[in-house]
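Handoff note, outgoing to incoming analyst
You'll be picking up this chain. Sequence as last confirmed:
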Amino acid sequence: MRLTDLLHPHLDGVTTVVDATDGGLNLEPYLHLPDGVALHHGEQDVGEGELVLLSYGPDPELHGTEADCLAVLQRMRPGGRGLIVFGHREPELPYHRLLDTLVAHHCQVLRAAPLDYVHLHAGAVFARTDELLPPHDWFGRPVPSEGFATALRIADEYVLADLVSRSLRARVLDLERTLEEAEGAQGPAHQEGLAERLAAAGQEKEQLAAALRGARERIGVLEARVAMLEGSTSLRVGRALVSAARSPRRGAARLPRELYGLWRGRARTRPATPHTAPEAAAREPAPDGRLHLAHRAFASTPRDRLVIAGVLTDSTAADFAADAVVNRVLPHDGRLIVQRTDPDALVVQLSACTGDGPWSLTGTGLAPDLDRKLAELLTETRAAGRSCVLWRDGPASAAPGLARLAWDAVLDTDTGVRLASLDPAAVGRQRLRGVFRADSTRARLSELARRIGAPDPLDERRICVLAAPQDRADVARLVAQVLGQVHRPAEVVVPDPTGLDELTAAGVTVRTGEPLAPWVADWTDLAEDRPDTLLLDLMCAQEYSGADAVGSTLAADDYIFVPELRPLLVRRSLLTSGVPPELWARQGHRLFAWCGKEPS
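Most recent structure output, in case you need it:
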């Protein structure tokens, strides 16, 4: 919730707002006061027609001190109102330190709500009164009750809310205690087991390297012997005689000439001497100990995408490949894939172990050789400093052996839905929004990335809004439109960032210059009405189509590729290329139409 949503319903009859906040907090850019309401700073008493602003938080330099807050409450007079903003998060709010002072000065809290800012997490509206006032609902409207009914409502809600909050707090404390006990119990054993596994992996790696070097030496000796035999005169004479015997007419005529040529060339063949051996060895390419993989993806640039080595099904690998670099491991090359591609994580999907495929029956106890190879693969991954993740998209009983392995993380969820696999006409726009926000493959991969500390695929959904507000009305309209979006933009680029402190406090980057987000929306015309689902629907259309630009057409085309459009959402690289929109389609860029109307 914004501060204006909490404050404005309580400005009826208020002509003066007194800012009594201390420290470094400046609430003026957040208020957007209507005409007829003046803002003043001071320490005067607050009475009828006035509303005071005060703050309370953990940072004295920003929110002021507790003593300053209590001093403001002492200056409240009948009819005065107040708004207090809290720097504490809701579960940590020490409201008990203010409660006695509020009661002593007849201040009744009418409404409290969370605030969506970085340094302000909650707010409460109160009034100085000599009689019990009806409380307000979530939308700031007074509840129709009075007198004894109001007291009963407040008392009942307090007792019931305290019951719910006590049970939740007790549950949290139990979970924290259980987690601490589990970590304490398995900590030393886990570390010892990890050290043993690492030592075993290192020893096994050295043994395999020694065996590989021995095999290559034997191969070199055999290749030298084969070359010596192929170059011998006896073998060449034998080949010439066999060739002549197979074709007597033609071969017999050529046989004397071939034997004479062998006799003439005998002097040019010299056995290798100790003096020539080093020169020949220098000309031979020395083996570098590397094996090269075919048909595997890798990048030499700084990593900005999630890289996965996975035991995955065909459909999951195809879905993940749209948002990550995916290298599927097989039982015979899994360790080599981990060594050469350096993935962010090894992901083992339970469905790939219980269905058809090269890893079928893994973890069921029916394929011990596959279980052993998977355990070796996990050891190799940990030795490389990477995470091992079990994606449990089915019942654990289907492959109970997987639970006995040591995993760094376990995801108990499905692999999500690719928007491109849905039919917008059949599922409806509301379903597309739900899949986009919570059930998409990209959202699932984002959860995986957060677990392992890898690049977040949801960064590809970041949007930059271009705007140029001219006056205070434009600033207020821009702030309201940006913060009202369900899919909030990541940054706003304007010629002058003055007056946009509320956007910064809400976590939206405000700056000048060129956009940095992958997608750009031009909101230069601030008089245009924009629904709160505008950016959400545009990103849904882009992720469904994979287009480079999404916009509207004169014919009101919807969810179809078009040769030209009025761009509403454009890829940053395309926008900064300098190519005019009418030439985008001719240069191979994909344009997707979105009409903005719900299908009937």
